[in-house]
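Why should sequence recovery work at all? Because a backbone constrains its sequence more than one might expect. Tight turns favour small or flexible residues, buried strands favour hydrophobic ones, and helices have their own preferences. The token representation captures these environments compactly. In the example below, the structure is given first.
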């Protein structure tokens, strides 16, 4: 007898109301493919931008959002040797994660401990990986350095603050005033998103300038962030520019920063960089899941919502009041 499973589908570009539950027949995995019974999935700004049709490379509609999942391999196709049925794994999906089952073949996947909480696992899988790669590979920040983080109380921002503590960074966090208590309590000097004096406030404390500005918001900070950098400092831009034209502008600024002496250095980071070389992603996962197991990092989970509440999760994310990460919990892990 055939079985069905539920996915949440963005039926067309638009607001959260375009997300609908759809049932699909559950098929067997193809050669080289594994089927994962999903425990939890990330909810991210990337999903929101894709749903609105504002990604640099918009998906074809209808599509299932969901950038990373944790779950258990419940079936494997011919030729699969990297994992076995029953293994608990984390997997990068880019899309497709808002579902009871996902099928993985070409995408990165790694075994994870059964003792790790599912929401923590997926928060690390995406938000902490971005934070780790931005700090260590793009900014190449050194212990004891100084950084400014925009969107500092969001999913990636809170990860940046926690990882920054591990290497003794002096940190300035830009976010709305309502989120300043969290930033102050976690060792970052809060700066108001709307304050025109934020740049001057940083330079009063850091007259020589900062080592790095890490921007996941874009807009004015992408333009003015270099004003608070020391000579030789770097602006790392990981915000989705939202359009091919904006992407080209950022690329042009990055090239100028490389070729023209005295220009601010600008580096761009994209979550799909693993397509060129997945080793850095897998190495980062290994490092971060060790830190999670040792309780040296603790993801800030703003909410664990059931799959049926994916629309509500998008509404919360777009309202801008979330501190930390939102996670869709699809099913509890097996006992």
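From this structural description, the recovered sequence reads:
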């Amino acid at each position: 007898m055939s079985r069905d499973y539920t996915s949440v589908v963005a039926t067309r570009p638009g607001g959260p109301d375009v997300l609908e539950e759809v049932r699909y027949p559950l098929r067997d995995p193809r050669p080289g493919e594994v089927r994962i019974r999903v425990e939890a999935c990330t909810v991210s700004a990337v999903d929101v931008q894709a749903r609105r049709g504002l990604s640099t490379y918009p998906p074809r509609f209808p599509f299932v959002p969901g950038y990373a999942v944790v779950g258990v391999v419940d079936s494997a196709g011919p030729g699969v040797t990297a994992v076995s049925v029953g293994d608990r794994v984390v997997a990068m999906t880019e899309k497709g994660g808002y579902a009871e089952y996902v099928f993985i073949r070409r995408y990165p996947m790694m075994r994870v401990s059964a003792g790790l909480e599912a929401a923590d696992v997926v928060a690390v899988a995406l938000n902490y990986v971005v934070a780790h790669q931005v700090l260590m590979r793009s900014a190449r920040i050194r212990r004891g350095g100084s950084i400014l983080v925009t969107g500092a109380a969001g999913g990636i921002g809170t990860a940046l603050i926690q990882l920054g503590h591990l290497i003794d960074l002096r940190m300035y966090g830009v976010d709305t005033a309502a989120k300043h208590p969290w930033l102050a309590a976690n060792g970052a000097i809060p700066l108001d998103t709307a304050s025109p004096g934020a740049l001057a406030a940083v330079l009063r404390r850091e007259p020589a300038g900062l080592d790095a500005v890490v921007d996941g918001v874009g807009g004015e900070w992408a333009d003015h962030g270099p004003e608070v950098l020391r000579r030789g400092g770097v602006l790392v831009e990981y915000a989705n520019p939202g359009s091919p034209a904006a992407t080209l502008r950022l690329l042009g600024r990055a090239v100028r920063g490389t070729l023209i002496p005295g220009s601010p250095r600008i580096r761009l980071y994209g979550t799909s960089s693993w397509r060129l070389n997945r080793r850095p992603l897998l190495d980062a996962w290994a490092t971060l899941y060790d830190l999670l197991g040792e309780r040296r990092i603790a993801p800030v989970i703003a909410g664990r919502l059931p799959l049926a509440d994916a629309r509500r999760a998008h509404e919360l994310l777009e309202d801008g009041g979330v501190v930390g990460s939102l996670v869709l919990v699809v099913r509890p892990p097996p006992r």
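A few observations help interpret the result. The chain has a mean pLDDT of 90.
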